[in-house]
Every structure is written in structure tokens, then in C-alpha cells.
Hints:
The protein contains three helices and seven strands. By secondary structure, it is α+β, with helices and mostly antiparallel strands. α2 (about 20-30) crosses α3 (about 45-65). About 15% of the residues are buried.
Amino acid sequence: MDLNLEEFTRRYVAVWNEPDPTIRRRSIAQLWTDDAVQYLESSEYRGHSELEPRVEEAYEKFVASGGFRFEPAAATVAHHDTIVLRTKMLPAGGGEVAWTGLSFLELAPDGRIHREHQYALPLEPTPVTAAR
């Protein structure tokens, strides 16, 4: 699959920051397949009918009301129709990162997301202790 990772990442992050519901809905259709599934630790969202309110709720809670913005957190990597994409949420006016996430994306043949596994990452590295 010939996919521009920088452009894909830009579009993925932009949908979470998009204030216009019509543009957001169109962006969701361009990013996710009709039968896509997004898995979070505590829930899952199936198809555009569930993804649209999920993205809208995140926008309203974190961007519109919360004063945050989402940005890429690191370089996006891909192989064999999968992508690993990291994002961060930080105050729109600048400041410390409030959240970081990792999405493991399985793509459909048309380059849209078919399955997404989203993980919230700890803000501070967790120390690894050697076994004795």
C-alpha cells in the first residue's frame, strides 16, 4: 500500500480537533471504513454511527470545553497494512502534556482504518525492575 504517513497522521489528528460537525463527519468517513471498530480499554465503537458521536464527545470535552488540542507525539510507523501512531493532548495555549496515546491501526485495502486499538500511555516512564 502506498500511503503518505505524514498526511495520514495529519488527517487523523485533525479530526479530533475539528470544530465543524460537517467536516468532522466527512473526515471520519475518509479515515475509517463503514464497518470499522475502535477499541478502547473500557469500550468499543463500531461503524460511523458510533464513531461520529465518540469523536464529537472527545472534541466537546477536551477541545471545545477543555481548552486542549491534539498533536502527533512521535513519528508514525507502518508496515504490512498496519500503522502505529502516537498522539498527545496539551493545553491549546501551551504547557505540559496532559495525555498521550498510542493507536495501533489495521488498514483496509483502500487505506482507511478497519480496526483501531487505542491505548492511553503513562505520562512518566514506569521503571522496570530486574527480577532477582
